[in-house]
Amino acid sequence: MGIRIGMGVDVHQLGEGRDLMLGGVHVPHDKGAIGHSDADVLLHAICDALLGALALGDIGVHFPDTSAEFKGIDSKILLRRTYELVQKEGYRIVNIDSTLLLEAPKIKPFVPQMQQTIAEILGLTIRDVSIKATTNEQMGYVGRKEGVVAYATVLLES
Ligand SMILES: Nc1ccn([C@@H]2O[C@H](COP(=O)(O)O)[C@@H](O)[C@H]2O)c(=O)n1
Ligand SMILES: C[C@@]1(CO)OP(=O)(O)OP(=O)(O)OC[C@H]1O
């Protein structure tokens, strides 16, 4: 049996007139994340962690932001497709840990739904999908509510 570890980081700007999609869930807020896709920073970080674990490049290599195919795409589709690449290599996920840096809103009430959404896509239980959050204590671009950051770590086994 082989094991591999991967980490992913994603950052998106927050702006008006966009939905805030986090972990595949719509989180009501006066600003949303700006991007070529639905800009789901948490799902993107998980995709990058999955790809990183097998040195398969990153999300922009597989789903370029210059392609019309991915304009406005639901990042749940990107996560599903990323995991298909991992499975083709003969690996499966053991567990995921992640942290969101977001000043507002509080995401705690939405975490169970995010865990459930991600677990369903990846064939995991919610205990295998950890989602944490922290504010940036009002410092920097996260603290000024201008952006959101996600970090994810995944463990794979073959
Ligand atoms: N966007 C966020 C940020 C934080 N939380 C939860 O609040 C707790 C306290 O956050 P601090 O940054 O003040 O330490 C944190 O542990 C999270 O549980 C959240 O839900 N959404
Ligand atoms: C997902 C992609 C593609 O739609 O677009 P964005 O939503 O801009 O997201 P980013 O995290 O910059 O990653 C790469 C892109 O390829």
List keywords for this structure.
binds the ligand Nc1ccn([C@@H]2O[C@H](COP(=O)(O)O)[C@@H](O)[C@H]2O)c(=O)n1, 5-stranded mixed β-sheet, two-stranded antiparallel sheet, binds 2C-methyl-D-erythritol 2,4-cyclodiphosphate, 158 residues, single chain, 60s Ribosomal Protein L30, Chain: A, 5 helices, alpha+beta, 30% strand
Model description:
This protein is an alpha+beta fold and 158 residues long. It has one domain: 2-C-methyl-D-erythritol 2,4-cyclodiphosphate synthase (60s Ribosomal Protein L30, Chain: A), CATH 3.30.1330. It is 30% helix and 30% strand. The chain is built from five helices and seven strands, in the order ββββαααβαβαβ. It has helices spanning 41-53, 59-62, 75-88, 111-122, 140-143, and strands at residues 3-15, 21-22, 25-26, 32-34, 92-101, 129-134, 147-157. A five-stranded mixed sheet has the order 4-1-7-5-6. α1 (41-53) runs parallel beside α3 (75-88). The longest helix is centred in the middle third of the chain and has 14 residues, at 75-88. The model has no long low-confidence stretch (mean pLDDT 98). Residues 10, 35-37, 39, 44, 59-60, 63-65, 70, 73 line the site of 2C-methyl-D-erythritol 2,4-cyclodiphosphate (CDI).
